[in-house]
Amino acid sequence: MTAESMMFNGAVVLMVLVLFGLAWGFLILKIQGGEAE
Q1: Which residues cross the membrane (predicted)?
Q2: CA dihedral in degrees (4, 8, 13, 19; nearest 10)?
Q3: Does 35 fall in a domain?
Q4: Helices (H) and strands (E) in the chain, counts
Q5: Helix, strand, coil shares of the chain as percentages rounded to 5?
Q6: Does residue 2 form part of some domain?
Q7: Longest dimension (CA), the chain
Q8: Domain count, the chain
Q9: 15 found inside a domain
């Protein structure tokens, strides 16, 4: 495994985690906002 492929894989994993985190946070905020009203 070369350093370039490791960096590329790391970047892909990082983007997926960021997108998943944003979606999860938005879902939690939406649920909490719905319960508060």
Answers
A1: 6-29
A2: 150
A3: no
A4: 1, 0
A5: 90, 0, 10
A6: yes
A7: 53
A8: 1
A9: yes
Mark 3-36 as b/e (b = at least 16 C-beta within 10 Å).
Answer: eeeeeeeeeeeeeeeeeeeeeeeeeeeeeeeeee
Q: With the CA atoms of 20, 26, 31 and 33 taken in that order, what torsion angle do they form, in degrees rounded to the nearest 10?
A: 170
Say if 37 falls within a structural domain: no
As a residue count, the chain comes to: 37
- Measured between alpha carbons, how far is 11 from 14 in angstroms, rounded to an integer? 5
Residue numbers of the domain that contains 21: 1-30
pLDDT tens figures, 1-37: 799 999 999 999 999 999 999 999 999 999 998 776 6
Residue 2: other Cβ atoms inside 10 A: 7
